[in-house]
Specification:
Strand order of the largest sheet: 3-2-1-6-5-4-9-8-7
Helix content: 40-55%
Strand content: 15-25%
Number of strands: 22
Amino acid sequence: MFISIRQFRLRFRLFFVIVGMLVFVYVMLSLLLYYDQYNRLTKNNHATMEQYNADVHLLLDLYMNERHTKIREGLYKFSKAIEARGGIKIKENIYTVRASNELTQATYPITISEWQVGKNRIDKEQTFLDSLSKTLGCDLSIFQKIPQGMLRVSTTLKSQLSERRVNMYLPHESEMVQNINEGRNYIGRVLLNKVWYIVNYQPIKQGNRVIGMLATSLPERDFTYLVPLLSKRKYLQTGHIYFFSPEGAVLLHRDSTARRMNLAKTMPDLLRLAGKQKIGSYRYYFNVGKKPAWRWQYYAYYKRADFYTAIAVSENEFIDMPLSEVRNLLIGVFMLFLAVAIIVVYIFSNIFTQPFLVIARTLGNLAAGKKTQTLAYKRKDEIGSISQSLNQLIHTSEGYASFAKAVGEGKFNQPFQATGSDDVLGNALLQMRDDLQKTAEEESTRNWITTQNAYFSEVIRQNQDDRIRLAQGVLGAIMQRLGMVQGAFYHVDKEEREEAFVLISAYAYHRQKLLTARLNTEDGLLGEAYQNKHIIEVRNLAEGYLKLLSGVGEQAPSYLLIIPCQTNTEVLGLLELASFQPLDEFKIDFLKELANTIGSTMSNIRTSELTVRYLKDAQEASEQLRQQDEELRQNMEELAASHEHMRQQEQEIRKILKKSQAKEEILQENMAELKKYQVELQAQREGYEKRIKELEAKLK
């Protein structure tokens, strides 16, 4: 059989198109599978690295807690060591020093008195502080109160030039000095010589007056203890942990050369990203060494000490190696799929391409509006069916065109009837008419819903701080917007012994039962809607259930709708609405969504109320604890002062006993004076008793 060039081109065009589509579909599916696997592996690794960072933060918390405990215990032992040496003694000698402001570095001449611990002057003898600091494992400082603040007169802290940081003072404006002046201890973070320290300050008192303070401190970012612990941890095979500051300085790294780097120069993008997002990841190309490759940095901000922990890991380890197996499998399956597709498509393209040219010419004439001859194919296969359908289409195309034009003009009532149930185009035109009509109605519905959503959102926003105002605003809007004639809003009260419905807003209600303060949650339609958490719709309401009074008479609504306002699985309120006509289904769906929004808003209101209540209770408990702590501290100080006074009295008594034998005459004189004093006391007591009796007589 002769094959024209046009038929030949059509056949192979069809062949290449089908094969190309199959290849395209396979490639797309393969790419989807490949990138899905890539995203899955990346997501899993992100979660793993976030957990690793969380574990490191737990270790840092333990480390920081240990250092806080160390400086607290150190301060206690420091105080006891000074007490053991007789405490701090203030001499009459005074001298002048040049004191520097710790914050502004401004220097002033200041005159201070001489302090001693034991027999040594504090600012001259440092051996005591140095040996005690080595024993306690933390730096120690003694401050003397001056008019400008607290002056460091003795310390083990040293500057970068190895000089002791004495004659530097903390001004009164600083938080720690304010706490000390009020008689309270202070523990926190302080920047000293461009290094952050954890510090603990305790006031030094003379009676009830603060004259100075003691301090213990430790460098906050001394990771010497953590290095061996972190070096033992494994982060996959290629991963390692390091720390860096918000400014980009590397604080801890397994590579000594990396500790001298600054990320602001080497990885500025990572530093900017970390400044915006406190926890996240950063992918970069590591082009250093023999095997440059893509790597990931997983970082997390450690707020307690103001630095970041980061884990660096190679992408090849958790992505490239697993994906290489997927790539090999997809390539093998593709080769087999391509061979089978070529053979099958080639065979079937030859079978189906021949009749299509005739059908294409006929369809071209029909599409051009020309008079078209019917096809002469009498086959009983698909081609014959297509020919019959095409012949029928030719006969009925004019009727279709007329109907389509009417529908296009919006005349949905234009009469038209399909030639039969198999009339695909005719039924499609009818369906198109119905769809266009339905679309017009749906568009109207969507516009209504959009308008109502905007209106009710504004009502809820304006009343989201108060439950009753929210109920009144929403119920009034529903009455106005949805044409309801009666409505009630019940709040589910769970604060009493038993749950109950409390009416907090009503519209056009006068029934006696609604005058009750609390309604049982298990009775009636309200109880059913609450227990089952679903909408109750009653279209033929029983006579007498509801009545509406007006100036012209009394009417009974026939339609009732009860909607629970809930969030998740908890019902927080109920809407009871009544009208004379049933609501459309889309309006009921709208009310259901609105009720969920109301439930979420009521949940937020309840959460806010509970938060305020709990915060108040916590503040009262904190204040009570603070007062108890202050009373205990004052009792301890009074006990210590009493002990010191008794010791001094005991020494005086011993001196008197030693001199008693040599001063017998003085003792006799003292006895005479004592008797005289007793007589005076007796006279005073009689006067007091007389005065008391006079007062009692006046009171009677």
